[in-house]
Design a protein that fits this description.
By secondary structure, the chain is of the alpha+beta class. The chain has four helices and five strands, in the order αββαβββαα. It has a single domain, classed as 2-Layer Sandwich (Beta Polymerase, domain 2). β4 and β5 form a beta hairpin. α1 crosses α2. The longest helix is centred in the middle third of the chain and has 18 residues. The protein is globular, with a radius of gyration of 13 Å.
Length: about 120
Amino acid sequence: MTVEPRELADLAVRAAGDKKAYDFKVLDISNISSIADFFVICSGRSSVNVQAIAGEIVDKVKEQFEGLVPRKEGVREGRWILLDYGDVVIHLFQEEERRFYNLERLWGDAPVVRISASM
């Protein structure tokens, strides 16, 4: 099954929103890096919330894309969870870590992708 990166990024945003993630940014890094096409970045209010957001994304992606599973980092701590689906890398932060690492500034040359107004 071929997975369109934009479709996967959109699904991740919807799933994260279902678990009360906030402050979404989707960056199109396809023209400035070979590591992925999109970064999805959002925040959760606590480690439990960030872990729940990650779980929801993993479940929804696995369900819609026939068992597709990411490489994962940071799940146990729940402060910055990275879900790597290859063309789409999802960064889930608690607010303090997000401010500290400031990926939006680091990847400031990447265009921000418009996401659904319902987020």
